[in-house]
């Protein structure tokens, strides 16, 4: 995601679109949204900057170019809580400080993935990074909605397994 | 079905079995068929095929043993999965719900590892006190029970996409013994179980019951004899003994958390290779200050987990390895003992697949960035195999009591493991063979993947001829306590290169015969 900004849209419109996409419930004082407002994520306990940074961080840790931002947003959504607030504040401050040292205004201001990844490599042993990365393993990859992007078909019992649905259909060997 | 038995806590004529997996579940049914009264205590709950879930994390939440454990040693699992050294099951049926079904007999020489390999520095190798000829009839019975394919006139399973890639690669390298395996998964209807529907999710419990598991064969059939009572959610705390050093009963926490005591004539422990030694160690007393049946100091030692690892290959076009049985085929040529390869013992290569969620968790734990994610981007075009090799028993690879306590206040198992140089040499050889196999079929990338949390847990109450070398004798009977038995993979003297379940089952059938004879003779 190159840019996160509040749109000229009303919150109600954003809510409606997000609900239609089935992605996220929107409520509360703030939100961040995709530039085309195809989705939006609310922020209650943490700041919009912190949520936007978390989202970019998630993308940079597990970048899949065919997986849209909304899935990464779902994966980090749980950080927007009273319990996580302090952890996020400290963690994002640490990340932005590392970005400053590398010559950027903050993490989001580093435009190339390589630059951001270099910043992340510098903090990858920190508990905050490890918590975000560890959470993504299930938070991102266990979203059934992204499985088709990888070709994974999930549950098969209800369809009678693959005995008549291509368990041995390889044709290029 | 007859009403399942219900035995009194004060009935001191029963055999108490701790655990209901491939060892305990089979022993329970075999004894019950002989008219012996059995109380089986199972820490987990009851699930049947209709309860199993075709979803990796949901199933893990349903079935896996996630009670606390601690780890140490230089194995990577201690870093990446420090609280989860094993991926095994806590349920009636135990890990026989989760296993992939590969049912291989040991090779003859593997019963005599010390004699065959010679002494290996740093390893505590020993010969089994059993001969291959002695085991042959028990293997026959085990294969018939499990309905193993490729033996006994039962056809093998058809080959899946993942297998076809594997087979072509193996044949291209000149390997000969390549087939869809000897599987306890029905290729045709057998023993009131239907044939495999190639659904995948073998690790999550077979929803068709095509794969053998004690959960829906031996356990309910044992209950139908009227001689078996299974108490689920019964967490065993301690085995008790009398002044004569014979065990007298078992203390356990019942499903309401109340401490109960079941009297027993014989106790058989089958809680897998972490919980079985843990229970003996937690059952220390003034007579057995270092743990029950541990005069040798061997309880908990010589933990083995097979030399494992995986290789995944990505290709230009789809493979869809998740379709069909998880373990869909095998290459056995490297299972031989041939020290010219730079290590003793051998290994099997078997196909394996993981769903996307577990692939993300296990492909390269802790790694991130595009090296990792581009591999997953090719998930649909991926084929996979798993290494199963004999690892060296080492005295310091061991289960001890941790300072951590579980919710009952019982000390949990700490699992210490470090690879032996022989293990590393074998793994590296297998990685190269696996990668070469896939390259021979045009792999665009190959991924030598580190071992997962262990499912083959062996050796922590090992069998030995001499009492000072191990915990149990050739019948799994404790050297120190005549009416105490070990009935799971922890009695393995060495691990061999084969998946252990068939041998666990064969030993359990054989042990039931021995226990019945000893009871009839009044020796126990």
From TrEMBL, chain A:
Keywords on record: Signal
Source superkingdom: Bacteria
Name under which the protein is recorded: Twin-arginine translocation pathway signal
InterPro entries documented for this protein: TAT_signal
Organism: Paracoccus sediminis
Signal peptide annotation: 1-33
Automatic annotation (TrEMBL), chain B:
Domain Glucose-methanol-choline oxidoreductase C-terminal: start-end pairs: 393-508
Molecular function as annotated in GO: flavin adenine dinucleotide binding; oxidoreductase activity, acting on CH-OH group of donors
UniProt KW keywords: FAD, Flavoprotein, Oxidoreductase
InterPro entries named among the record's database cross-references: FAD/NAD-bd_sf, GMC_OxRdtase_N, GMC_OxRtase_C
Pfam families: GMC_oxred_C, GMC_oxred_N
Domain Glucose-methanol-choline oxidoreductase N-terminal, residue spans: 90-307
Cross-referenced SUPFAM superfamilies: FAD-linked reductases, C-terminal domain, FAD/NAD(P)-binding domain
Superkingdom of origin organism: Bacteria
Record PANTHER family: LONG-CHAIN-ALCOHOL OXIDASE
Family named by the database record: Belongs to the GMC oxidoreductase family.
Protein name, as recorded: Choline dehydrogenase
Species in which this protein is naturally found: Paracoccus sediminis
